[in-house]
Design goal:
two-stranded parallel sheet, about 15% strand, 2 helices, about 100 residues
Length: about 100
């Protein structure tokens, strides 16, 4: 059994910790595009990983932690800007590593 966590209605469910390695799906490729739709605030070409970041923040209890493997493009992609703003307003960055 599997579920699409980006489409699922999570209701009031919240977690102390959210950990994941979301798929990095190009929104420019026909096979993986969301068709310009964003459930969690990203622009039409934001990487799907940005959507998972927004969802993870929403699902984490106050004082909880989120640990995700994310593409570096999330730091500068125009269409991920609204999600970066949401994260900046909703969470505190404790640690980041990239190569």
């Amino acid at each position: 059994q599997h579920d699409d966590s980006l489409q699922r209605d999570w209701g009031d469910e919240r977690f102390d910790v959210v950990v994941g390695n979301p798929p990095f799906l190009s929104q420019l490729a026909a096979a993986t595009t969301r068709g310009g739709r964003s459930v969690h605030g990203g622009g039409p070409y934001a990487d799907t990983a940005a959507e998972f970041l927004a969802l993870a923040i929403r699902l984490t209890r106050v004082g909880g932690r989120v640990g995700l493997v994310l593409p570096q493009s999330l730091l500068s992609a125009r269409d991920a800007g609204p999600i970066r703003s949401f994260v900046e307003q909703s969470a505190a960055l404790r640690w980041m590593w990239w190569s």
